[in-house]
Amino acid sequence: MVTAPKPASWSYSEEYVAEDTVLANARARAEEVGVDPIGAGSGAALRFLASVLDARAVVEIGTGTGVSGLWMLRGMRPDGVLTSVDTEAEHQRLAKETFTEAGIPSQRARLIPGAALEVLPRLTDGHYDIVFADGDKQEYPEYLGEALRLLRPGGVVAFDNALWHDRVADPAQRDPETIAIRELCRVVNEHESLVPALLPVGDGLLLAKKVWLPEA
């Protein structure tokens, strides 16, 4: 019988890949402006994913203060470019501080202010290795549709907060955010062109690979 990890084991796994001073400073900026960035465990998973895919082009929905973006940039190719979208220009200014402090060349981080569902349609079809979403939870199902268009075959879409503070697994929870994430999980799991996995890191990280489908 598989048993759930004890809190000590969960904390050990979350802290297994330690964060440095740059990420700690980014988290401090996030706290100052009321942003809730991904956990260290989720960040390490994203860096690993970017490294495995040898990612050259990544889209991020929800720049925050640069925590998740820096994790991914550190896993991407040296010439890889992160395109990050956020409605808050101040958050993106703070993210630039994070990337500069980390020694990331400015041309590797393309920060676009605006609403994701207005910006994403302007991006190039089939160009991206990863689409990572940590934006408006009620828009998650719509982000999936955009991601399927933006990803190359073999690319991966990732959603943070896929467990949404233990609410998604509880059928009694019916708030709009929980319903949207629960529906997203269902669609991803049933989608014929996706290979899904739900990782219990941080607040849940939903991953799905866009598979190669034979031509009709």
Automatic annotation (TrEMBL):
PROSITE patterns this protein is in?
SAM_OMT_I
User: Which domain of life does the protein's organism represent?
Assistant: Bacteria
Pfam families tied to this protein:
Methyltransf_3
From the UniProt record, give one GO term of the biological process aspect. methylation
Tell me which UniProt keywords the record has, alphabetically.
Methyltransferase, S-adenosyl-L-methionine, Transferase
Which Gene Ontology molecular-function terms are recorded? O-methyltransferase activity; S-adenosylmethionine-dependent methyltransferase activity
Could you confirm whether the keyword Transferase appears in this record? yes
This protein is called what? O-methyltransferase
